[in-house]
Fold each of these.
Amino acid sequence: MSRHLLSIDDLSRDDIERILRRAGSFAEVSGREIKKVPTLRGRTVINLFYEASTRTSSSFELAAKRLSADLVSVKAQGSSVDKGESLKDTVQTLSAYDPAAIVIRSPQVGAAALVARWSPACVINAGDGKREHPTQALLDLYALRRRAGALEGLKIWIVGDVLHSRVARSGILAFSRMGCEVTVCGPPTLIPRGIETLGCRVRHTLDELGGADVVYALRMQHERMEGTYVPSLREYAARYQIDGRRLGPNQLLMHPGPVNRGVELSAEVIDSPQALITEQVESGVVVRMAVLYELLAGGRAGPQAGASGPVGAATEAQPA
Amino acid sequence: MRPAPRNGGGPAGTGPRAGGRAPLDHAGGPPATLLLRGARAFDPRAGIDETADLLVRDGRVAELGHSLGAPEGAEVVEAEGLHAVPAFVDPHVHLRTPGREDEEDIDSGTRAAAAGGFCAILAQPNTHPVVDAAPVLQSLRERARAEARVPTGFLAAITVGQRGEQLTEMAELADAGAAGFTDDGLPVRSAGVMRQALQYQRLAARTLALHEEDPSLSGSGVMHEGDMSALLGLAGIPSASESAMVARDCALAAYEDGRIHVQHVSARESIEVIERAKAVGVRVTCEATPHHLLLSEEAVRMLDTNAKMNPPLRAEADRQALIEGLRAGTVDCVATDHAPHAREEKEQPFEAAPMGVTGLETAFAALHTGLVLPGLLELGTLIERMTAGGEPFGVPAPTLAGGSPANVCLVDLEADWHVGEAGYESRSANCAFDGRRLTGRVRMTIAAGAVAYRERSFALGAV
């Protein structure tokens, strides 16, 4: 495994399996009263966020704290970035504190790779522009496997604004690497030309949605709801909203959040037992713990993790 | 000011209507007298291809023969194993002057040109301020007469401030010595303004060079729209953004009987449009850059900002169409679109970095390595296309024919080198071929009769 996590492409199927197993063993820790393990004691993790984020930044913070790391969170607003400091200078400044890992979220494609070039720290991509969001894809795999039992052969439909979605790009790569069959679906204006090369089929209507095992709805960004990408919110919802009528009784429903109720999803499906949305959020912390562990301690401590590892042998996640 | 290269001459009807020859300016050195001994003299256009001694006397090609004696005071260059070819002409260079002299100035830019074997270049007007009024142009020409190592022409803007609204004083600018007109960097968005420019061209008598792009199709794109942009999540610039505008302007040029030159073609569809337009007699020429001829969207995979330019590197099929166009002559000439950028600007995430790459110092070597050596293009064709860049603007192609002003490039086709290993003559280092190993090295350039460049390690002995 590479010493950075920049893209799902950096991970082999074995790497992904190991991270998911590790996340399973951390889930056990999270069930205890004291949720902390000493693995990263004395090491520093820097969260560098150039974009607003609730789920990703807070779950990375919790993950680092539960591994006993020292955590520094830097947000673009109110920092030297606001004063016009370049990414390179910011990264070199923060690197002077000798962090073990830098977690970066940026509106720019490839920002994480640049940080990896400019800093000796391990770098975790927490979203780079519209390109990738690999830890989201890993937590999606984790949550889905807990529910569905196995990933191999699952038919997954990713529905909505694929064009602007890093979640979709990482998801397509991750699901197909684990043996799922991925279809993306949305209005032609929101499906990027050439997306098939990532390993998915393209559909522009939900006519064949019945064949899916899992429906993964994407967030429709407010600023893109009206105007040139789709003629109107009304028409978008009429054609692409996942509601109780469209979601079959045996289909699972996923969404990366935050949800626009009544746009990409109707209230009834969000609250239905088929939805994994809350489990996805829960999985965020343990999967990010597993990623930090694999990058920062995995190679040194070995799979059994010794005294500083989590708890004994990693246990295979069981279907709920 | 020394006279512009004479002689050669392109096919009839390719120059502007009034046949105006673009004035070129440079500081120039003393007229050279030197004997290139034992070089392979190769000028496909003039039908010259023999290993012989080439005598340059007082800045002119005096004689090509065997066992020539060196005149009194002549420098003798032992050129065995080297090729002496007509030096190249680049119709598309950004000298960044005035305004961004930190990136390039007339001295450094023309030094880079000479190091690449160019004996004449045309500078683009998208500077700060824009070259849209005669005084700006005149001051640039003055500086070129003081600083330029090779003859340099200056294009002026088509519209004031390149805003695409109001025509510049094209007639006065032409009188002041504009080599042509272009809003390069930006398209002339409005078809109506474009039509008026073509009408007014009858007074200005200079070719309109066009950056073809529909901004409403390019949007916020930063690379070619295709498989790679889908993979990288980057906003794409579709090929139709270029080809649709090429089609529009070919139609307008046909209607107004104007003379246009399409800059840096990148898409297969644009080549097809130009081919059809030429076939029905539209007065259109076009250029292609070494980076579009040699690289594709694949080069963007690692988000190297030296693979970011406008128009973007396109798909492999587009690249193949450009090569075929160059071979067949649909693509009339090679242009580098040499676009220097400061290091801190290119050291940014891909989307934030500016578009453009340098190319003067690598153009010949890169095309020789990438097209000639693998057998995709004849060396003779490459030399014809690299010397033809001035013709759309009335600058004749250099030649080795006797009596012509000496515009000679001495190249070693076997020399291997790594781009950038010894730095650049240009002030900027954002070269599309940085770090690559190329075969073919310019040893010496004679421009308008004077030695403009010699490689530092290239030993010369005077008699």
Amino acid sequence: MATLRLVFRELLHRKLNFLLSTLAVVTAVALFVSYFTTAGAARRETTRVTRDIGFNLRIIPASTDMDQFWAVGFSDQTMPEDTIHRFAKYDKVFLTYNHLVASLQQKFEIAGKEVILTGLAPTITAPDQRKQPMGYAIKPGTVQVGYQVAERLALKKGGSLELGGKKFAVEQTLAESGTDDDIRVFGLLSDVQGVLNMKGRINEIKAIDCLCLTADQDPLKILRAELAKALPEAKVIQLRAIADARAKQRQTAEKYFAFVTPLLLVVCAAWICVLAVLNVRERKMEIGVLRALGYGSGKIAALFLAKAVVLGVIGAAVGYAVGSALALQFGPEIFKVTAQAIKAEPVLLLWALVAAPAFAALASFIPAMLAVTQDPAVTLREE
Amino acid sequence: MLRFENVSKIYPTSRGAVKSLDALDLEVKAGEFIAIRGPSGCGKTTLLLAAGGMLRPTSGRVTVDGQDLYALSSRERAQFRACRIGFVFQMFHLVPYLNAVENVLLAANPATKNTDRDRAAKLLAQLGLEPRVHHKPADLSTGERQRTAIARALLNEPKLILADEPTGNLDPENAAEVFRHLQEFHRAGGTVLVVTHGTTADAFADRVVEMRAGAVQNGGFGKRSS
């Protein structure tokens, strides 16, 4: 008789054992699914917010006077443009830094008033980065004009703006931002270097942190340590804003998960193991008879391991549903910051369908071996 | 067909070694119906399990058609049991979650033909269980359970049936019926070895062998004693 047929018949016969064993798998899977559903949401949301607020890391010359920096908004010191390329080539830099953009910012007078002329180089990403580079894409000979400057000079898209004796096409006038971007004029780095007569110089590298630090790590400490190794002539400032709150929330969740997961896995595995041992004991006589009928060790072990796999598959499906429902129902309440980003993750079902049967089979391995090594003669003599 | 040569079986226990078979010699010829009779604890079940390749003797040889059973690997012995031996137990040992026909089909050997569902159903019908084929053991009477167990033992058309107190839980009427079915198998050329502590089997057996303290007490007697 086919092993699976026997397994299903036995599952339906011993309903309590089946329900309790399935519950163990469901609990383990539900925990993982609910965690990864909310963690996935947290990660997406953090990334989105970080993108929204722009680059959150500013690498500036180490000699920068920070009082002047915060008063003016940019460094009065410069560094060679080559710095960014050296940094990008530094081993493992993209493990902690992402999306590097070199910039040069200087005050510049246009029509009797100061603006911040800002040159931006094309974004440098990790060699294996698949995502489109974020940030501005400015064509040579064009500028993007901040809201206040555009209003004052009555500039519109398609118009022109003269900077240092050279005419630039206005590619875009920016919407009001409520920041100093409103008095900025953005151009390509090489164009702005030409206007300012500062060829090959930059005074800032903008970057975004990779958001991949673990729960017990202080991001700024690591970022600074990495930078000190790669670029001793520079220092990094992190904009600790709302993204930080999300990162902290994620780190806290990771901490709890790191503590609870092994504990829960051990408890669930022990639970399955004990139920399987009880099942083996209950089926001692059945195993003895199957032996008498000529069933080999492989078939006996297969009966118990196949049962574990079936429990794993059922537990994975139910656990996925329960875990997703828990995440969707209670996730927004617990993780308020990322509430809107929480959604079911179908890919977790595939993972669960692979991992849960393997987990259940592993937990049932010792009981299966007990069944295999059980001496049928002893059992049959006991009757 | 089946031969025990100077077979001993000693069980180590916390209170010392217990000798269950003591230099036992016995020969069962092909087509014989033998009843082994003796009191509880005299080694009858040990003898039966050793004959079925399920209990390795401490010393001596158990051969079936000249083949030393315990010279085979455990896999080969399992295969040997599946193809050539049918077991019947006192407690029937039907699998509780399978119905009668499925219990019979448990013995189906993928390597053997004629072990399909039709043959199982036919065997059950021959044993008077046609209306009960889809009943689970809990829904069968004790007599019906034992007949189901006999059908299971017969499925692979074995040469030898080993029955351990097959009527120990049955009333005299059902006990006689079970022995009649075993006798039919025997008349069709099969060999039967029954161990029992009662005398019901005497009327059906070619030979009755008395056992005491792990050894055969006589060469056997009966209506066709050899």
Amino acid sequence: MNRKLASTCFVRFDEDRCVGCGSCLRGCPTKAIRVKKKKAIRIVDQCIGCGECIRSCREGAVSAATEGPEALKKDHVAIALVSPVLYAQFPGVMPKDVLLGLRQMGFQHTIDMSYFLEMFQYATEEFISRNRRSRVAPWPLISPVCPVVVRLIAFQFPNLLPNVLPVLRPVALMAREVKSRLIPEYSEKGKDVTLYYINPCPTKKDPVCLPPRKRPLPHEIALGINDIYPQLVKHVNQIEAADGIPFYQTRLEYETCATGNASTWAMSGGEIADMDIDQSLAVSGMEETISYLGKIEMGLFQDIEYIEFRTCREGCLGGVLNVIDKYLAKGAVQKMIKRFGLGKRLHRENILRMYEKGEFQSEKKASKLTRLFGAQKEALSIDSLKKIEKVMKLIKGTDCVACGAPDCRTFAEDVVRGDSALKECVFVGAQTKKKG
Amino acid sequence: MSKFRKSFHIKARDFIRAGEASINVQNLLKSMNFDSRLIRRIAICGYESEMNVVMHGGDGSLSIEVDTGKLVLEVADDGPGIADIELAMQAGYSTANDDHREMGFGAGMGLPNMKKNADQIYIESVKDQGTHVRMFFFLPDGAKTD
């Protein structure tokens, strides 16, 4: 098994700050964390980048593998790719003003992802209405928007990979547009371009973790919303305080966001709210997501066509890198919807023309996804299962976490796999001492 | 050749925890890296049997046995038994009450679904004593279990 010390591709562990309390152990959905020797946190290579460990750490020892605003390279053309969750961090402020604030911070271009989310919505509706007749994919289809959900499926529910909607994710549509349209303009002039993804969660992989030939070109950097918020809020406040509406020329229609409702997407249910699908559901929260995926695997919900999953409670508003509390943010989004309604900017006909040309087809095959995300553990044999049962009888079974494993069953498995020693269990340790 | 067997308890009328036993069976099979389609078939059978016990049966258990060349899923309970097995095997036949239907159950597909997904199914039922269902899943040649 592939084990790494201290950090994964998505999160960083600060060993100096870690006190070995084990709070992060229970929250990890893939049981990827162990605490060893009180300080060092060992990460098994099973991290899906959900950020639950960041949420549960009281010492602030875990952080996302994102960069701060100092990463803004002055000699590069900086393009911000903005998740609409950012707008929800500024209650009552129009999305276009938030984007303007980003440009004042030093980004030459700001790309509004909600534009591509609309595109994705039309393409999804089309796929589903065709699937009603062709049945090429099984019901219920699962939204590919949350990458953590897709990794979770590849890792823990590989059965359900065919259920993942084979339409390109909004972030991929956005990156494709920027790479095919904006970047060539600059490369012709010999200028370097850096793409900055502004994210509410640690979903983007640290490029350092990728093999050199797979490292993204041009430069791509992930920024957390919390990383840029302190600077951005100053600019946004200035813009709001200014008399009249500041005008800022943008050339491409997705460089600004004229509508007020773009942040609807950040909310659980926002993806399906304006979709023309009768049988759809929105599920949010890690526990809830895992429980629903398990039920789909057992054959339930086949009468539902589409399920939007978000592993964060209340949707992306609940992402660990947000600044504003998720319920306050949700209130702000709901107010915006009241004011502006749902409505779209794009026209269905144009998107359908692109659909006909196959521009939305996701080429990722199920097996590729499994290879990408599924760090499958070595299979347990009948013998090892029996040994695990034996270990389970020796240890107390209270899931006390003192050994540094998230629960007794996982500890037993570690012992049988040879990764832990039985005496690391405090209960077993105390008994051997008594006898000795 | 060694076998491995593990049982999980099912409590009658406990709709809140219903499904846990079959999730446990699923996780166990996943840790052994069985073919995912096979796990799905067993998961469906496990869930349907578990729901039958929760809705109609008495307390019972769901067990999985890993053996050479085959997996055996067993569900047993000490409930009222199935009055007419042949009738119960018919798609759409159900003895569910209105409460069950309100929760979305009782489509009469439980046993038919189990029959469809298992390679072999054996049902024994004695009135007022309980029901015992055994489902066999044969592994393709070359699939290792030890």
Amino acid sequence: MAILTYREAVVRALDEEMARDDDVIFFGEDVGRAGGVFKVTPGLWETYGNDRVRDTPISEAAIVGAGIGAAITGMRPVIELMFADFAAVTLDQIVNQAAKMRYLSGGQITVPLTIRAAQGGGVGFGAQHSQCCETWFMHAPGIKVVVPSTPADVLGLLKTAIRDDNPVVFLEHKGQYAEKGEVPDGEHLVPFGVANIVREGRDVTIVAVQRMIGVAMKAAVELEKSGISCEVIDPRTLVPLDMATITESVKKTGRLITVEEAVQAGGWGAEVATQIADHAIWSLEAPIVRVTLKTGLIPFSGPLEEYVTPSKDDVIAAVRRVMET
Amino acid sequence: MTAQTNPVERLDPQTRRHMLRSMIEVRTVEAQIQELFLENVIRGTTHLCDGQEAVSVGMAAAISPSRGDTVTCTYRGHGHALALGLPIETMMAEIMGKAAGSSKGKGGSMHLTDMRNGLIGTFAVVGAGLPISNGAALTAQIRKTGAVAVAIFGDGTANIGTFHEALNLAAVWKLPTIFLCENNLYGEYSAYEDTAPVANVADRAVAYGMPGVIVDGQDAEAVYAAMRSAVARAQAGDGPTLVEAKTYRYRGHSRTDPASYRRAGELDQWLRRDPIMVLADRMIADGELMQEELEQIGQTAVKSIEDATKWAMAQPYPALDSVYEDIWV
């Protein structure tokens, strides 16, 4: 077991896959010579050269389009959009083109493209550089959506993403880049659609991803002191979504809380809640509670950003509410 | 309309004949499709390319899908697809939404795809294909295949962001991309001159450090010659070219558009330089074609398209379960 940061896990995954397969190429804004604005991809340009690792102009639609075209014609491109918020600039290429080309061509086209981007708040970047955008892509069938929470998952899921023959949106949480964690030695692949039960518990199921796993875990530790046992589940991928593991957990605990660093309306928490209502409503002993951003917008001011973001106390309050019912 | 590039080479009689036959086929198919729409055999909408056939056949003759050359085009793509080799039967079946369609009825008129013949996509969102052609060009560049990627688009596309992003990236990376603009004078219902501040789309090439070539889009041989030059430049590693074919759309933008915004006499003026006539007249003058042969080619096209239409009409619709297929690999 080695200890890697979340950031180092990204570059290890890219390095391993580029070494393994010459068809893997990587490009985006400032990713080559500069090693990325988040210093996530240092050394790749030096190792693999200008053919396979390229800096691009600030042209998100051109970047995604070039990724699609290269993918269609036999490469396995990984592209970086820097801030996930910038996906809005190139949404057509992602949701209308990458997602639909296989379908519209009746299966003639394959788009093995990985789109990396950094999302999430907590770093004072304001409303256009802090969003968690995972749900944007859940509405585009044809795209897989990956939200890794630990360095080991970053490594294993990014390698899986690169080998997947579908377009994958791989969202890294920029607030977690410095977090450290154990990473297995040797080849480490994590399959899509398999949730991780981060903590086992009896009384409440808490589903969270990325930075909110840490928040949920802190709440779980504190609640344990008052005798409330929380099960914390990390779906790891939202498309495909491992509802079987979540449903099984809810059948055991009878209570469900989702924790999202994102907008409440139409979020993945709403999808999880609805599916539980469909398939396990008679197992519920309390209403389902969604803990989300208090507003959809992320303010700049430090205390305000901290206030709108789900906290340990918000999760504890939600748990206490469902335990009282 | 001025043609600033004249044919630099006379094509051999066989290639000319192939291009002529192909243009007549496209014209006949479009007439058939219009009829089928009016009879409600085909649903949705369609964007016909009558008048622009020389661009399709000149482009197709200049590239080599077997080498890995690829094409992206617009929703006005029947001509390009046919010129590249998509069988008429499967195209008709696709446009009718049949299981035997080239995309199993999932794409339709606006999304023809034919990977076997290099057509990697027909894009119904203006400008969407250009960045994707760059990606195909990137593959060719990295693998050193000598292949080129052709992005076909209309004059309206010159005003959307992806045009600028794609030309810029292609130039910076010296990609073997050929940007082929069909300037048919109208972006949907609006005249080019009302929506663009420069006289020619090709004028924009200078901003991206690439040649901007204007070609007579009614002359298949001129289009061929311009495309061959662009292919040679791409293969030499010198990067992309913007080719602007000056052409004209005989019909409105789509099925429901009578094109009443056209200036009086404009259509008649363009009909006098009909692309089929331009090539046929030249072949007749060069003693390569008899008037009776021209008529014969027309009759053969009508017959084969009637047969293709009958075949497509007799095909079943896709099984309902097929909606769940081809979403994921």
